[in-house]
Each structure stands twice: as structure tokens, then as C-alpha cells.
Amino acid sequence: MRQPTTLAAIALFMTFSVVSKANDRKALVIGNDNYTHTHALLNARNDAKDVADALTSFGYSVNLSLDSTRQQLDQAIMLFTQNLAPGDVALVYYSGHGFQVGGENYLVPVDFAANTASLGRQEGVSISSVLQGISSRGTRVQIIILDACRDNPFFSSRSADAGWADMGNAAGTLMAFGTAPGSTSSDNPTGRNGLFTKALLEHISSTLPIEAVLKQARKETILASQGAQIPWIASSLVGSFRINGHNENQATRSEELSLNDQLALIPTGPSQARDLSGSPVSTNAQSQNGFDLRSADILAQQGILLAQQGNYQEAIRSLSAALEAHPGYSIVLRVLGLIFHVLGRGADAAAQFTRAINTDPEDSLAYTYRCAETTNSDPLSAIRDCYASVAITPQFVPARLLLANALLAQGQSEAALREITSALIIAPDSAQSYAVRARIMKALGQDAAADKDIRRAIALSLPGRP
CA-to-CA distance for 422 and 410, rounded, in angstroms? Predict the structure, then answer.
């Protein structure tokens, strides 16, 4: 796809209709109590059944697997993974024995009989392999919750350590362990559930983001264990995700992402400055962090006007000066990124959008711009960014059209078609959506339907159309 060469071209490229589409939520829930070759657990099945019931009530499609052998566990994971589609939320919950070997973490099927590290690798189920299988399906969110490794009875060798190993995780992933790396957790034999799952179930229906829910569960687990068990959480989620999908924040912003229109929201007077999203920008002499926002606003206004006039080098100087006065100025970071995009400096553009996201992880526009910038160079990351934008502001979806293009570039024509079909349900007069759908229909071999969409797109583009 050719890169736009003017801000007006970017505006045309990124002016799309609004659409909202809920992504499917799917869960694999596993509970293993009745081990053949080591002592049984008391609460893993209860943990799994109670979590499965909660997730089902939240609208998840749940696969429940209890007391699974290695063969049954492999089959459950395979079927779950194969059922995932691009854009899904994938959640895996496991309760049972677990262990680590050489920095890798393993789930333990009930027929596990290994007593050495090498056999353990063969008979256990690698969590990394589970996560990789999920991610390969194009899911937008991966949640792994493991209330396991109550002890490690399998090895006498020092090469296998008690507890979980630390793990890195890819963007869009959250991993929660019932205990910290290198330690073990209690099966809570006097209760129905393990300590961590008990606390999780008490907060799982909360309206809070999942990180906050898990922090509440961690606090209660620490108290209940008198400090002996400390749950551990690692998150690279983008945007705000709630485990109870019924409580997702359904924002109602429906502004369109026309750069010209949004820059027009910023008048010449700095006291009236507005963010690209339409939110007022503070113009107090000094922010609570001590930044001189009045100077930053004046410099930002000047830079944006210069950009509108095509004087990009001077615009960069003014906008860079605004960032010196206020390093976290999101609108400036985004506009700088757009200018670098116009100048063909793709890496610099993506870096500015990333800075905006790091400054404000809820900046849906920055995710959308970065999606547009990286569609050709890194389409999988672009798809994740577009999904992130939609997750933050479900009703603000110019990212949907970018997402459809990225999915189409990856050969995921059916997924792209779903995005465009949803867009047209909300905005049936979107010429851009018909044009993109024509490309998708061509890819699907439906030439007659593609021709019809092209004619419709042309008709909607004629002068006098709204």
C-alpha cells in the first residue's frame, strides 16, 4: 500500500465510520486432584468448577477438563486452541500440581510419573507452548491464571526447583500465578478452594480492571497465609480489560478520525486548545507535576498550524520544544508521529506513537495511528494495536477499517469480512467500507459481489453525498 504524502491524504485514509463488535471470549479451565503416582489434592476440581461457573455466567464459552491425563490434557488444549479466532479473548485457568525445570513452567497431568528433570519435561505440559499456541491464533488478549504448585513432590534432583519460574510475556498477555516465582502455595485443606482461587472468586465479578482484581486477590491471599504465599502477576495488556465482560466500559464516543477535522478542533488561542480526541487540554500556568503547560500549549499550537501549512521542519521544531516543556503531551506526540509518517520516517513515527502509548496506555488514537504505521512492516503487531484501540473505546472504531486491511494482508479474509460487515451495519453509507469490502470479496473469489461493492462505493463518493 502506498504511503500518504500529505496530511490531507492521511486524513482521507483515516476517516472511517464507527462500528462496535464484541469479540468472543473463550476459556479453558483445568482442575486436577486425583493423581495416580503422588498425593492427591483436595480443592483443584472445586477451584476449576467454581471458576468455570463464574466465567460461564460472564458469557465465556468454557471448556472444562477435570482430572486429565497427559493425553486428555493435550487434546483439551488442542481443541481449545483450534477454536480460537483472530480478536478473541483467550483465558486459561489451571489448578493442580505444577513445577519448573530450567526456567520453564509445566502443568502436571494426573498420570504424571516422572522422577527426573528430563522425564518431567517429557511428561509435563509446557506453559510456554500453551501460550504460543494461543497467540498464533491472533487472539487480542491472552489470560493465564495458574493456582498450582502447592508443592513439588516429583524430583529429588536439584535441577528441578519448587514453585514457578519467572516468565516473559508478549503484548496483550496477562499471567497470574497463585504464588511468586520460586515458591509454593497452600492447597487450603480446610476450605473448598485454594487460598488464591478463593480470593479470586470473591472479586472476579468486579467492575475493576483485571489487574486490580488480581491485586485484591493477592492482598487477601497474603493475609490468609500470614505472608507465606504471595501471588505473582505479570501483565503486558494494552488498554483496560475486565474479566467480567458484562462490566466492560462501553464508551459512547463516536467522533471520526479525520485529521483535518480534529486539528480544526484546536483554535489559535491556547486557552481553548483541545486534544485530538476532543478532550480539553489544560492551560493552567503550571500543572500539578510542575510543567509549564501554557508555554507547551503555545508551542503546540504553533507547531500544529505549521504542520497544516506543510512547513513540517519548523513544525517539528515547535512540537519538540513543546515536549521539552511538557514531556507527556499526548497530542504533540501523536502529531509528531503523523509528520514523521508524511516524511517517510516510519520508524520515527512509530516511536512517537509508542511514546504516546507509554505516557497514556488508554490512548486509543495512538494505538490506531501505530496500527496504520506498522500494517506493512509488522502486520501482527498492527492487528494487536487496532484491537487495543477498539478495546479502549468500543464505539470509536476507525481502527476497524485499518484492522480489516491488516487482517486481509495476513490472508485472514473471513476475519476482515466480519469487521467490515459490522461497520456497514452501523454506517451503511460508508464509501470506504464498501471499497475495502470489495477487496475482501475479491480475495474470497466473489467477483460479482466485489463489483457491486465498488459501484456502491463510487455512488456514495459522488458530489452531493453527505
Answer: 20
CATH number of residue 45's parent domain: 3.40.50.1460
Residue 121 counted as domain residue: yes
Distance from C-alpha of 121 to C-alpha of 106, rounded to nearest angstrom: 8
Residues 6+ apart with CB under 8 A from 146: 93, 94, 95, 98, 105, 107, 127, 164, 175, 176, 177, 178
Residue 81: inside a domain: yes
Residue 160 lies in a domain: yes
What's the pLDDT at 170? 59
Domain count for the chain, please give it.
1
Say what percent of the chain tops pLDDT 90: 23
Nearest to 98 by CA among 158, 154, 48: 154
Domain for residue 287, yes or no? no
> 3-state DSSP call for residue 173?
strand
Residue with more model confidence, 292 or 428: 428
Confidence label for 231 from pLDDT (cuts 50, 70 and 90): confident
Q: Provide the whole-model pTM.
A: 0.53
More reliable by pLDDT, 10 or 195: 195
Give 107's strand partners: 98, 125
Q: Which three cell numbers stand for residue 296?
A: 507547551
Q: Are 74 and 122 in contact (CB under 8 A)?
A: no
Which residue segment(s) compose the domain that 98 sits in? 25-247
> Are 313 and 307 a contacting pair, CB within 8 Å?
no
Cα 320 off chain centre by: 30
Q: pLDDT tens across 381-409, in order? A: 888 888 888 777 766 657 778 888 888 88
User: CB–CB of 310/6 below 8 Å?
Assistant: yes
